[in-house]
Structure formats: structure tokens, C-alpha cells
Amino acid sequence: MPLSASQVFADISAQQPPAQHTALMGTAAVLGGSVAGLLAARVLSDYAERVVLIDPDGPVTADDARPGVPHGTQVHALLPGGRRQLERWFPGFTAQTVAAGALEAGPETRRTYVDGRLKQWPLAEIQLTASRPFLEAAIRRRVLALPNVVVTTGRATGLEFTDGAVSGVRFDTAEGGGVENADFTVDAMGRSSRLSSWLEEGGWERPSMRRMTVNLNYSTAIVSRDEDVPKISIALALNTPASAQSPEVAGAIFLPIEKDRWIVMMGGYEDSRPGRTIEDMRARLRRDFPPEFGSVIGNELLGDITTYRHSDSRRRDFHLLERFPARLVSVGDAVASVNPIYGQGMSSAALHGAALARFLRSQPDLSTPAREFFDLQRVVVDAAWQTSTSADLALPHVDGPYPRGYRLTRWLSGQIMRASITDRAVSHRFDAVTTMLSHPSTLATPGVVLRAVRANLRSRGQG
User: Fold this and answer.
1) pTM of the prediction?
2) What is the number of other CB atoms lying within 10 angstroms of the CB of residue 427?
3) How many C-beta atoms lie closer than 10 Å to residue 192's C-beta?
4) Tens digit of pLDDT for each residue in 30-45?
């Protein structure tokens, strides 16, 4: 009997430590030095004699956002599902990163508000908080310390195909161009990946792309922090379309980062462009959000407020291709990038790496297309896509595409979301899904739905 999606997700995300493996390939090439690319390189280091990371951004510090991550200055959340994977591939990662300046946020220090109501039962998981550049630099140091991983500072410009497989990568550097012969290639070039065009140019199928218009605008400020260990380490306030506020107000979040700083973000949809000035951000946070938001944003502003616009969520369906070259896979935002308000990006990338490890652990025939990998990855992509888009479809300015059975799904999601505020069991099951510890199908059981409905009836009666 085939495994269910939730069972496959649990198998992929299991925290089993990596083992020593017989090399399946000589050289593996990874295109892009993002979190997805770095974790793919880490996984491949167990199966390749040599891993070449072709990264256009070159060396960066823990203080600088990479040019390839234009939203790197914004708030990034490392969800528990992603933190577990980092600990799996880099034992001691959490402790070492905290020693370098990151902070640990336990359940007693986290607050989540939904439409102004405080959730009563936070998940008993540690969350690691730091800036995106800091976390990415920590991962990069661990990857580049591996003896068989090397970096080429350059931009991939195309692929070489031989006998139905990718056999090399063309690239340009400051010194000129060249070709890196490769036995296996990973596309980690982000949401603007050119792989689809390269496949088409090489006579292969181009993967279809699904888009969902989101039009999210967000602004981020970094302010000073006095507390070494703050009593409230993470505060998240999300507004649903049923909120008393305007549906264009997405929410706000703050969390502590390295060097005694807070990072504070506000988000809005469509024409709502919050926080372009510190005065505007302070006024809105004090007026529209719980008191702790106004308190934190009152601290000294460090640097300029930065803004970013996320126009749409995108998904490339590689698993549907009938003709695809062997020795090639794609990971991270190059496959799917969803609404960043839910903080799934880095954790999704980590789980794509886990899916790659699960695929290679089976010692597959690399001379055939990696369909088994894309089937595994699809489970992770489905989880992030379903969690994100089911919420986005409820927004008044989002007009589909609506999946089959959407009305029922929306009703069920609403019941579970409301019950997660007041019911411990529903809250923990819901949070396990939103933090990428469990697959969304674990919520769609008769027991969970019945408990959620009962909890909402009790809450309504008490109100």
C-alpha cells in the first residue's frame, strides 16, 4: 500500500543523522548559493566526490544581504521544521548560532494574535531568531568547511546535454567563461530561474507555471534592543479577511536579532503600503496592533526602513513533465515561492534538501530522469502551497484559481483557525502544520474537525 502524503512528509523530515555513503557521482554542480543551494550542496557532499557551487554573488558577510536575495533585509523566520533540518545536517547548529549572536525563543516568550485575539497554547518548540544574512552566513560557513565542496564565483548561463542527460554547466566569471562537467546538476537559481528556458532551448519540455496574484507590500525597520533576553521574543499579529480592520492590512511581526537589535515588519495588500517612514510605522503599530508592537517600535531606529513587494506566488510543476533530462533537479524558490508573510521559504528549502537526501539514499539510477525525487519534493511543495494559498484565496483581491472543493476547504480551515486560538489540541496540530513539522492533511481528520467545531461553539457560548 503506498504511503499517504502525511507519511511521506514525516519520512522526508525525519531527523535521522546523515550517514557515510558510497559516492554515486564524481562531480555535482549546484547553481545558486541560496539557502536551498547551500543545503543541496550539503546533501550532495555525502554522495559526490566533488561538489561545485556556482554562485554569482560571491563571498558575503553576516551583515550584508546577498544581491540575489533582494528581500534579504526583511524579516525572515526559521520555522521549527527548518531548524530541525539544519540541526540534522549540521549537528550543534543551534548552539553554535546562538553563541554567535542568534537567540532562542521558547514557547513562553512567543505571542501570536489572530484578528487581535491572543492564541493561548503556543507550540512547545524552540524557534531560532536572527537576520536572514546572519543565518545564511552561518549555513554557508558550515557548507564551505566540507572538504569536497568548492565555490566558483560566476553566473550559470546554460546547460550541456549528452545522451538525454545534463552533462555540464556553462558559466561566466569575471575572468571569462567556461564549462563545468557535471554528473548531477541542481538548479537553485530562485524564482527567476532560467532553467525553463534552457530546457526549451535544448528541445525539452518547459514546466508549466502556476501563479496566484498576492500583491503583498511590506516594510521593515531595525531598532535598538536593550534586553539581553527579552520577555517577549516574538510577537506575530495576523489579520484575516474577517478582521474588523481593513482586509488590506496583512499583519505585523517583531523578533530579536543579533547585535542587540529588533527587526520589525508590517505588511499590507494591494494599495496598502505601510511604514514607508518611521513616523508612519510607529503610528500604525500603536494604533492597529497590541501594545508590545508600539513599545518595540519606539526604540531608536538603526538605518533606513526597507520595503519590498511580492507580486505573486509561483509554482513550477516539474513532476508533470513527460520529457525531462536525467541528472537534473530543481529546488527552493526555483520550484515554488509562496506568500512570504507565512515565513515558509527557508524551511521549505531545507525540506527540499531532505527530499534530495531521501532520493539519493535509495541509490537511484541516475541515467534516468529523477522522477522519484520530484514525487517526494511534490509532497513538500504541496504542503507549503496549500497552507499559503488556502489563506490567500480568502483575501478579497485574490481571484483564484480556486481548487476543487474550495468552499468546503475554506469552511474547514476557518473552523480550525478559530479553534486554534482557544483549544490546546487543535492549536498544537495547527501550529505543527504552519511551522512545517507536519503535512496539512493531518488537520483534515474527522476527529480534529469535530473538536474544532465543538471548541468554536463553546467559545461562542461563552462570548
Assistant:
1) 0.94
2) 21
3) 10
4) 999 999 999 999 999 9
